[in-house]
Amino acid sequence: MKYLRIIFLLVILISVQPVTAAADSLLPGETMDYIGYGAIVSVLLLLIIAMLVLLKAFKVLTRVVLKSEGYTNEQITAELEPAKKEKKPKAEVWQKLLSLRPMAEEKELLIAHDYDGIEELDNPIPAWFMWLFYTTIAFAVCYLLIYHVFNAAPLQYEEYKIELAQADVAKKVFLSKAANRVDENSVKLVHDPAVLASGKAIFMSTCAACHGEHAQGNVGPNLTDDYWLHGHKINDLFKTIKYGVLAKGMPTWEKQLSPKQISDVANYIKSLHGTKPAGAKEPQGTKEEDDDNKLVSNN
Hints:
mainly alpha, Cytochrome Bc1 Complex, Chain D, domain 2, two-stranded antiparallel ribbon
């Protein structure tokens, strides 16, 4: 049968060569007309028909030859039209990625023995799963050495304490920046000893010359009694210190002191109410009640 196919191919090649030569003779350069093309197409169609007839004749002749040699009809059909091999069903993409065998191949995986009718499949664990298992073992060994043997990295509780310390530092930085954003509208009355100590230091260096070391009053008014000239609230004190009262000789401290320092001084002055220092100056201004329902002097 293979020899017949080779002979058929040779006949086709021999038949095509005259047609190619005829086509070249009918193509005078680029001036070939439609009649010439029609003739070439007709010749090619005739050649195709002739080849199909020859192929059929070869098949018939082959059947006759094989029959004369004692082949049965089934053998002749099998020789002329060999059966196509059954293709195995293609595995799905996820099966290929996970190295899984499809269910259609289950019979091929059966091991030749059974126990009480229970059959076993020869289906080994995929290589990727084994590598993943080995990786977890290596990770566990490294973790043990790093965290528990050599102490090269902190454990979770130590990390927690480190993060708390970092958060405390960040909080202090934030509060130090936020404190300088205070103004006469947002200032709050506080009793923090650290704030009062800071306010006292600033008062002694900037305010004591006019108001006395104990705020008893000197050139400026007494800041410890119940009388005030420019408001008794913490907001009023902050505003007076910040902008000053130039008409009465009170300078503006806005450029010399930060908002945080002005707030500290104002809170320190509020803490001096009712201390009654020695040599206190006579009251000035209007008697008013403070935020804690106590009488303070509005200065």
